[in-house]
Amino acid sequence: MPIAYLGLGSNLDAGHYLRLASRELRSRFSLQKISAVYRSKALGFDGADFLNAVACIETELTPHDLCTQLELIHEVAGRRRRSGKLISRTLDIDLLLYDQLVLDEPPVRLPREDVLRYSFVLRPLAEIAPHYRHPVTGKLISDHWRAFDVASHPLTAVDLVL
């Protein structure tokens, strides 16, 4: 069964909405692992700090159908889509990786560029999937994390169980 990695984030009542995301993922999929939760500053706009984690699920859904299910979870969380990506949100769930698939069929782009770009994605991913090979670079996720400039966007572990 295919394995997918999902980025979870929130900066509006973040603990509540990340727990909601965890419950929804458990009820809809076979949730294999979920990382610790990390706090980071909002990037590109003034807003409350974000809490982020990464989840690993097994699913028989295609990447497109999986994204449709993730949108339904966004609706449960009351997320309202507005123009502009750099805004506060109750919940954001992004499909980061799906097996070793490389795909560019908008809105699905795999692997998601955020994996190697942001500490709040790469750090929790490295925690739960250190031996996963990035489908484009061929390098281990743990190697990407070791090479990452952590000072560019610091993270703080948060005591929140999902």
How would you describe this protein?
By secondary structure, the chain is of the alpha+beta class. The chain has one domain (3-158): 7,8-Dihydro-6-hydroxymethylpterin-pyrophosphokinase HPPK (Alpha-Beta Plaits), CATH 3.30.70.560. It is built from five helices and eight strands; from the N terminus they run E-H-E-E-E-H-E-E-E-H-H-H-E. The protein has helices at 14-28, 63-76, 114-117, 119-128, 141-147; strands spanning 3-10, 30-34, 37-40, 50-58, 92-98, 103-105, 108-110, 156-158. A hairpin with a 2-residue loop joins strand 6 and strand 7 (108-110). Helix 4 crosses helix 5. The protein is globular, with a radius of gyration of 15 Å.
What key phrases describe this protein's structure?
162 residues; two-stranded antiparallel ribbon; 31% helix
Detail the topology: elements first, then pairings.
Elements: E1 3-10, H1 14-28, E2 30-34, E3 37-40, E4 50-58, H2 63-76, E5 92-98, E6 103-105, E7 108-110, H3 114-117, H4 119-128, H5 141-147, E8 156-158
Antiparallel strand pairs: 1-4, 1-5, 2-4, 3-4, 3-8, 6-7
Helix pairs in contact: 4-5
Q: What is the gist of this entry?
A:
With 162 residues, the chain is an alpha+beta fold. The protein has helices spanning 14-28, 63-76, 114-117, 119-128, 141-147; strands at 3-10, 30-34, 37-40, 50-58, 92-98, 103-105, 108-110, 156-158.
